Amino acid sequence: METKLNKSLHRLACVCLLGLIVLCLGWELWWAPMRPGGTLMALKAVPLLFGLRGVLQARLYTLQWVAMLSLLYLMEGVVRAWSDFSVASQILAGAEIVLSLGLYLGAILYVRPAKRAARRRRPS
What we know:
It is built from four helices and no strands. With 124 residues, the chain is mainly α.
């Protein structure tokens, strides 16, 4: 049974994943690329694309590994917020931190009740 909280958590994960994809592409191609004209760093959005369909369909396994993947984007955001000289890049890094944390929390908290139910069904 899907509760309002579960729907909200799933929606949070979906919105944050889509936002993270857009952010990764926009950041490295147009808004504040490392080099003028864009860089191959935009390819960092590709791993997120692999999980897009499964997250949108609320597949538990996909949500689990996308949550773990989001921690890499969290780390990148923290490092670039701390070390980039460009103010625009620091602001985008802050957005990456927020989106990756939202994706992580939304996905993990959505999956948690299903994992608990599976543990209860498992014979002792």
